[in-house]
From TrEMBL:
It comes from Camelus bactrianus (Bactrian camel). Its main location: membrane. Residues 40-290 form the G-protein coupled receptors family 1 profile domain. It is a multi-pass membrane protein. It is found in: Cell membrane. The chain crosses the membrane at residues 25-50, 59-81, 101-120, 141-161, 193-216, 237-260, 272-292. Putative odorant or sperm cell receptor. This is Olfactory receptor.
Length: 314
Protein backbone atom coordinates (compact mmCIF):
# COMPACT_ATOMS: atom_id res chain seq x y z
CA UNK A 1 0.00 0.00 0.00
CA UNK A 2 2.73 2.45 0.94
CA UNK A 3 5.27 3.00 -1.78
CA UNK A 4 7.12 5.98 -0.34
CA UNK A 5 10.81 5.13 -0.13
CA UNK A 6 12.13 8.69 -0.48
CA UNK A 7 12.73 10.77 2.61
CA UNK A 8 11.39 9.89 6.05
CA UNK A 9 10.75 6.26 6.92
CA UNK A 10 9.36 7.09 10.36
CA UNK A 11 7.86 10.06 12.13
CA UNK A 12 8.16 11.50 15.60
CA UNK A 13 4.98 12.70 17.26
CA UNK A 14 5.71 15.80 19.32
CA UNK A 15 2.54 15.31 21.35
CA UNK A 16 1.84 17.76 24.16
CA UNK A 17 4.42 20.32 25.26
CA UNK A 18 4.84 21.27 28.89
CA UNK A 19 6.34 20.12 32.17
CA UNK A 20 6.36 16.54 33.42
CA UNK A 21 3.71 17.45 35.99
CA UNK A 22 1.40 18.73 33.25
CA UNK A 23 1.97 15.56 31.24
CA UNK A 24 1.00 13.46 34.27
CA UNK A 25 -2.20 15.49 34.68
CA UNK A 26 -3.01 15.00 30.99
CA UNK A 27 -2.23 11.30 31.29
CA UNK A 28 -4.63 10.84 34.21
CA UNK A 29 -7.32 12.92 32.45
CA UNK A 30 -7.12 11.02 29.17
CA UNK A 31 -7.04 7.64 30.94
CA UNK A 32 -10.26 8.66 32.69
CA UNK A 33 -11.83 9.82 29.41
CA UNK A 34 -10.78 6.66 27.60
CA UNK A 35 -11.94 4.29 30.36
CA UNK A 36 -15.32 6.00 30.80
CA UNK A 37 -15.90 6.06 27.03
CA UNK A 38 -15.07 2.39 26.51
CA UNK A 39 -17.10 1.25 29.53
CA UNK A 40 -20.05 3.51 28.69
CA UNK A 41 -20.25 2.45 25.05
CA UNK A 42 -19.73 -1.21 25.96
CA UNK A 43 -22.60 -1.08 28.46
CA UNK A 44 -24.81 0.67 25.88
CA UNK A 45 -23.99 -1.95 23.23
CA UNK A 46 -24.70 -4.86 25.57
CA UNK A 47 -27.99 -3.35 26.75
CA UNK A 48 -29.17 -2.73 23.20
CA UNK A 49 -28.31 -6.31 22.24
CA UNK A 50 -29.92 -8.12 25.18
CA UNK A 51 -32.91 -5.98 26.18
CA UNK A 52 -36.04 -6.87 24.22
CA UNK A 53 -37.57 -3.42 24.82
CA UNK A 54 -34.76 -1.80 22.80
CA UNK A 55 -35.24 -3.86 19.63
CA UNK A 56 -36.05 -0.94 17.35
CA UNK A 57 -34.20 0.84 14.50
CA UNK A 58 -33.19 3.73 16.75
CA UNK A 59 -31.37 1.47 19.23
CA UNK A 60 -30.04 -0.77 16.48
CA UNK A 61 -28.19 2.21 15.02
CA UNK A 62 -27.22 3.36 18.52
CA UNK A 63 -25.55 0.00 19.17
CA UNK A 64 -23.45 0.32 16.02
CA UNK A 65 -22.61 3.93 16.86
CA UNK A 66 -21.44 2.86 20.33
CA UNK A 67 -19.11 0.23 18.83
CA UNK A 68 -17.87 2.85 16.39
CA UNK A 69 -17.09 5.32 19.19
CA UNK A 70 -14.94 2.69 20.94
CA UNK A 71 -12.99 2.16 17.72
CA UNK A 72 -12.60 5.90 17.10
CA UNK A 73 -11.22 6.73 20.54
CA UNK A 74 -8.91 3.70 20.31
CA UNK A 75 -7.24 4.94 17.13
CA UNK A 76 -4.93 7.49 18.71
CA UNK A 77 -5.46 7.45 22.48
CA UNK A 78 -3.43 4.32 23.45
CA UNK A 79 -0.36 5.58 21.57
CA UNK A 80 -0.91 9.08 22.95
CA UNK A 81 -1.07 7.72 26.52
CA UNK A 82 2.17 5.82 25.95
CA UNK A 83 3.77 9.05 24.69
CA UNK A 84 2.64 10.94 27.79
CA UNK A 85 3.94 8.20 30.04
CA UNK A 86 7.43 8.19 28.52
CA UNK A 87 9.64 11.27 28.18
CA UNK A 88 10.63 12.54 24.75
CA UNK A 89 9.04 12.20 21.35
CA UNK A 90 6.98 9.20 20.26
CA UNK A 91 8.35 7.37 17.21
CA UNK A 92 5.95 5.80 14.72
CA UNK A 93 6.85 4.00 11.52
CA UNK A 94 5.61 5.10 8.11
CA UNK A 95 3.37 2.04 7.79
CA UNK A 96 1.94 2.43 11.31
CA UNK A 97 1.28 6.10 10.57
CA UNK A 98 -0.57 5.16 7.40
CA UNK A 99 -2.66 2.54 9.20
CA UNK A 100 -3.53 5.02 11.94
CA UNK A 101 -4.56 7.69 9.44
CA UNK A 102 -6.62 5.18 7.45
CA UNK A 103 -8.47 3.97 10.55
CA UNK A 104 -9.12 7.53 11.68
CA UNK A 105 -10.51 8.70 8.32
CA UNK A 106 -12.51 5.55 7.53
CA UNK A 107 -14.14 5.46 10.96
CA UNK A 108 -14.97 9.16 10.65
CA UNK A 109 -16.57 8.56 7.25
CA UNK A 110 -18.54 5.65 8.68
CA UNK A 111 -19.72 7.82 11.57
CA UNK A 112 -21.25 10.37 9.21
CA UNK A 113 -22.99 7.65 7.21
CA UNK A 114 -24.52 6.29 10.43
CA UNK A 115 -25.54 9.75 11.65
CA UNK A 116 -27.27 10.41 8.33
CA UNK A 117 -29.11 7.08 8.57
CA UNK A 118 -30.15 7.85 12.15
CA UNK A 119 -31.52 11.23 11.03
CA UNK A 120 -33.68 9.55 8.39
CA UNK A 121 -34.84 7.02 10.99
CA UNK A 122 -35.85 9.87 13.35
CA UNK A 123 -37.75 11.52 10.46
CA UNK A 124 -39.72 8.32 9.79
CA UNK A 125 -40.39 7.78 13.52
CA UNK A 126 -41.70 11.32 14.09
CA UNK A 127 -43.37 12.12 10.77
CA UNK A 128 -44.63 8.62 9.84
CA UNK A 129 -44.90 6.75 13.16
CA UNK A 130 -47.50 4.25 11.92
CA UNK A 131 -45.22 3.14 9.07
CA UNK A 132 -41.97 3.20 11.04
CA UNK A 133 -41.72 -0.57 11.49
CA UNK A 134 -42.60 -1.13 7.82
CA UNK A 135 -40.17 1.39 6.32
CA UNK A 136 -37.31 0.85 8.78
CA UNK A 137 -37.63 -2.91 9.06
CA UNK A 138 -34.76 -5.17 10.12
CA UNK A 139 -33.73 -5.93 6.52
CA UNK A 140 -33.51 -2.25 5.65
CA UNK A 141 -31.53 -1.45 8.80
CA UNK A 142 -29.08 -4.29 8.15
CA UNK A 143 -28.54 -3.14 4.56
CA UNK A 144 -27.99 0.48 5.63
CA UNK A 145 -25.47 -0.47 8.31
CA UNK A 146 -23.61 -2.89 6.04
CA UNK A 147 -23.36 -0.31 3.24
CA UNK A 148 -22.17 2.30 5.75
CA UNK A 149 -19.37 0.09 7.06
CA UNK A 150 -18.25 -0.97 3.58
CA UNK A 151 -18.43 2.59 2.22
CA UNK A 152 -16.45 3.99 5.15
CA UNK A 153 -13.53 1.59 4.73
CA UNK A 154 -13.45 1.64 0.92
CA UNK A 155 -13.85 5.39 0.41
CA UNK A 156 -10.68 6.35 2.32
CA UNK A 157 -8.30 3.90 0.60
CA UNK A 158 -7.27 6.28 -2.18
CA UNK A 159 -6.85 9.41 0.02
CA UNK A 160 -4.48 7.57 2.36
CA UNK A 161 -2.66 5.90 -0.54
CA UNK A 162 -2.20 9.26 -2.28
CA UNK A 163 -0.99 10.92 0.92
CA UNK A 164 1.74 8.33 1.43
CA UNK A 165 2.90 8.47 -2.18
CA UNK A 166 4.35 11.89 -1.32
CA UNK A 167 7.98 12.35 -0.30
CA UNK A 168 8.56 13.62 3.24
CA UNK A 169 11.95 15.29 3.11
CA UNK A 170 11.29 18.56 4.97
CA UNK A 171 11.10 17.00 8.41
CA UNK A 172 9.85 13.92 10.21
CA UNK A 173 8.48 15.83 13.23
CA UNK A 174 4.68 15.71 13.41
CA UNK A 175 3.34 18.51 15.60
CA UNK A 176 0.39 16.51 16.86
CA UNK A 177 -0.44 13.51 19.02
CA UNK A 178 -1.31 11.33 16.01
CA UNK A 179 -0.67 11.20 12.26
CA UNK A 180 -3.00 13.91 11.01
CA UNK A 181 -3.33 14.43 7.28
CA UNK A 182 -2.80 18.19 7.46
CA UNK A 183 0.51 17.76 9.28
CA UNK A 184 1.70 15.12 6.79
CA UNK A 185 0.89 17.34 3.82
CA UNK A 186 2.76 20.18 5.49
CA UNK A 187 5.89 18.02 5.82
CA UNK A 188 5.87 16.92 2.17
CA UNK A 189 8.34 18.42 -0.27
CA UNK A 190 6.00 17.73 -3.23
CA UNK A 191 3.49 20.15 -4.69
CA UNK A 192 0.34 19.13 -2.83
CA UNK A 193 -2.07 21.66 -4.37
CA UNK A 194 -3.86 19.16 -6.62
CA UNK A 195 -4.13 16.39 -4.04
CA UNK A 196 -5.38 18.85 -1.43
CA UNK A 197 -8.09 20.00 -3.85
CA UNK A 198 -9.19 16.40 -4.54
CA UNK A 199 -9.19 15.59 -0.82
CA UNK A 200 -11.23 18.73 -0.20
CA UNK A 201 -13.84 17.63 -2.76
CA UNK A 202 -14.00 14.16 -1.21
CA UNK A 203 -14.43 15.63 2.26
CA UNK A 204 -17.23 17.87 1.00
CA UNK A 205 -18.92 14.85 -0.59
CA UNK A 206 -18.77 12.80 2.62
CA UNK A 207 -19.76 15.55 5.04
CA UNK A 208 -22.47 17.25 3.03
CA UNK A 209 -23.66 13.96 1.55
CA UNK A 210 -24.75 12.97 5.05
CA UNK A 211 -25.48 16.48 6.33
CA UNK A 212 -28.07 17.29 3.64
CA UNK A 213 -30.42 14.38 4.51
CA UNK A 214 -29.89 15.29 8.19
CA UNK A 215 -30.92 18.91 7.58
CA UNK A 216 -33.89 17.88 5.43
CA UNK A 217 -35.00 15.29 8.00
CA UNK A 218 -34.85 17.76 10.88
CA UNK A 219 -36.66 20.40 8.87
CA UNK A 220 -39.62 18.03 8.52
CA UNK A 221 -39.22 16.84 12.12
CA UNK A 222 -39.37 20.37 13.54
CA UNK A 223 -42.33 21.22 11.29
CA UNK A 224 -44.20 18.13 12.49
CA UNK A 225 -43.39 18.73 16.16
CA UNK A 226 -44.65 22.32 16.00
CA UNK A 227 -48.01 21.04 14.75
CA UNK A 228 -48.51 18.83 17.82
CA UNK A 229 -51.19 20.60 19.93
CA UNK A 230 -50.03 19.63 23.44
CA UNK A 231 -46.81 20.86 25.01
CA UNK A 232 -46.14 17.44 26.54
CA UNK A 233 -46.51 15.81 23.13
CA UNK A 234 -44.07 18.26 21.58
CA UNK A 235 -41.61 17.69 24.41
CA UNK A 236 -41.84 13.92 24.09
CA UNK A 237 -41.38 14.02 20.31
CA UNK A 238 -38.39 16.33 20.54
CA UNK A 239 -36.76 14.24 23.30
CA UNK A 240 -36.51 11.30 20.87
CA UNK A 241 -34.33 13.44 18.57
CA UNK A 242 -32.39 15.58 21.06
CA UNK A 243 -29.57 13.08 21.66
CA UNK A 244 -28.96 12.47 17.98
CA UNK A 245 -29.11 16.19 17.20
CA UNK A 246 -26.53 16.94 19.92
CA UNK A 247 -24.21 14.26 18.54
CA UNK A 248 -24.61 15.69 15.02
CA UNK A 249 -23.64 19.21 16.16
CA UNK A 250 -20.54 18.01 18.04
CA UNK A 251 -19.32 15.62 15.33
CA UNK A 252 -19.99 17.76 12.27
CA UNK A 253 -18.59 20.90 13.87
CA UNK A 254 -15.16 19.37 14.45
CA UNK A 255 -14.86 17.53 11.14
CA UNK A 256 -16.06 20.54 9.12
CA UNK A 257 -13.31 22.60 10.71
CA UNK A 258 -10.67 19.93 10.11
CA UNK A 259 -11.32 18.78 6.57
CA UNK A 260 -13.64 21.09 4.61
CA UNK A 261 -10.99 23.61 3.58
CA UNK A 262 -8.89 23.63 0.41
CA UNK A 263 -5.58 24.32 2.21
CA UNK A 264 -5.27 21.65 4.87
CA UNK A 265 -1.50 22.05 5.24
CA UNK A 266 -1.79 25.75 6.09
CA UNK A 267 -4.26 25.05 8.89
CA UNK A 268 -2.22 22.21 10.39
CA UNK A 269 -0.82 24.36 13.19
CA UNK A 270 -4.16 24.83 14.96
CA UNK A 271 -5.71 21.45 14.09
CA UNK A 272 -4.36 19.77 17.23
CA UNK A 273 -7.00 21.16 19.57
CA UNK A 274 -9.84 20.30 17.18
CA UNK A 275 -8.39 16.81 16.62
CA UNK A 276 -8.39 16.36 20.39
CA UNK A 277 -12.05 17.34 20.54
CA UNK A 278 -13.02 14.98 17.72
CA UNK A 279 -10.88 12.03 18.83
CA UNK A 280 -11.41 12.12 22.60
CA UNK A 281 -13.96 14.63 23.86
CA UNK A 282 -16.76 13.82 21.38
CA UNK A 283 -16.62 10.02 21.96
CA UNK A 284 -16.46 10.72 25.71
CA UNK A 285 -19.63 12.83 25.61
CA UNK A 286 -21.70 10.54 23.41
CA UNK A 287 -22.41 7.81 26.03
CA UNK A 288 -23.75 10.50 28.36
CA UNK A 289 -25.74 12.17 25.58
CA UNK A 290 -27.41 8.97 24.41
CA UNK A 291 -27.71 7.18 27.77
CA UNK A 292 -28.51 9.79 30.43
CA UNK A 293 -31.04 11.54 28.17
CA UNK A 294 -32.83 8.34 27.17
CA UNK A 295 -35.44 7.00 29.57
CA UNK A 296 -35.65 3.59 27.92
CA UNK A 297 -31.90 3.02 28.12
CA UNK A 298 -31.86 4.15 31.76
CA UNK A 299 -34.77 1.78 32.55
CA UNK A 300 -33.04 -1.10 30.76
CA UNK A 301 -29.83 -0.35 32.66
CA UNK A 302 -31.70 -0.42 35.99
CA UNK A 303 -33.34 -3.72 35.09
CA UNK A 304 -29.95 -5.16 34.16
CA UNK A 305 -28.40 -4.03 37.45
CA UNK A 306 -31.32 -5.53 39.39
CA UNK A 307 -30.96 -8.86 37.57
CA UNK A 308 -27.22 -8.93 38.24
CA UNK A 309 -27.76 -8.16 41.94
CA UNK A 310 -30.39 -10.91 42.12
CA UNK A 311 -28.01 -13.43 40.56
CA UNK A 312 -25.20 -12.52 42.96
CA UNK A 313 -27.51 -12.86 45.96
CA UNK A 314 -28.56 -16.32 44.87
Amino acid sequence: MLGNYCGATEFYLLGFPGSQELRHVLLATFILFYSVTVMGDTVTTVIVCVDKHLQSPMYFFLGHLSVLEILIISVAVPLMLWGLLLPGMQAISLIACGVQLYRYLSLGTLEFALLGAMAVDRYVAVCNPLRNNVIMNSRTCNIVVTVSWVFGFLFEIWPVYATFQLSYCKSNMVNNFFCGRGQLLKLSCNDTLFIEFILFLMAVFVLFGSLIPTIVSYTYIISTILKIPSASGRRKAFSTCASHFTCVVVSYGGYLFLYVKPKQAQAANYNGVVSLMVSIVAPFLNPFVFTLRNDKVIEALRDGVKRCCHLFRN
